[in-house]
């Protein structure tokens, strides 16, 4: 399947989850160490806009990736997701190289590889938001299967312990874990039953 369609579905799932965010949720801690939900949404929004710029040939513009506070983070996230999806769907985009300055590589990435990075990032960030809110998040099995080889290709090791690393060190998982739970563990998340809103209020 076209990586763009896989990414579109993962992004739409994340939009549906972010739509559940209420103003009182924004200061909750997330699975991303040191980040509140407001921080995470700002990051997710900026990454959409940065990847959209990369698809349009403007990835080297650091301002395109800059995180900015939004009066309505939920609306801003949905708008950025819509722009990103349109940019990825543009004619000829798969023939372009994407400049991704945050990856630390100067050479452009092949479009399909760059979109694959975005795809797995948002498959996992959808879980981050759902985990923070205490709601269920169960991606379609074909999305998890498509993401698994990408997760395996992400290097593990000490670099993941550095400040600002995209993923925490991988964690062990049970042999019977679902493919998506294996992805979460591989990328440093600990699958667990989320706390509900009621539990957060206690």
Automatic annotation (TrEMBL):
It comes from the Bacteria. GO terms for molecular function: metal ion binding. Residues 8-130 form the Mycothiol-dependent maleylpyruvate isomerase metal-binding domain. InterPro entries: CHP03086 (IPR017520), DinB/YfiT-like (IPR034660), Maleyloyr_isom (IPR017517), MDMPI_metal-binding (IPR024344). It holds the Pfam family MDMPI_N. This is TIGR03086 family protein. It comes from Microbispora rosea.
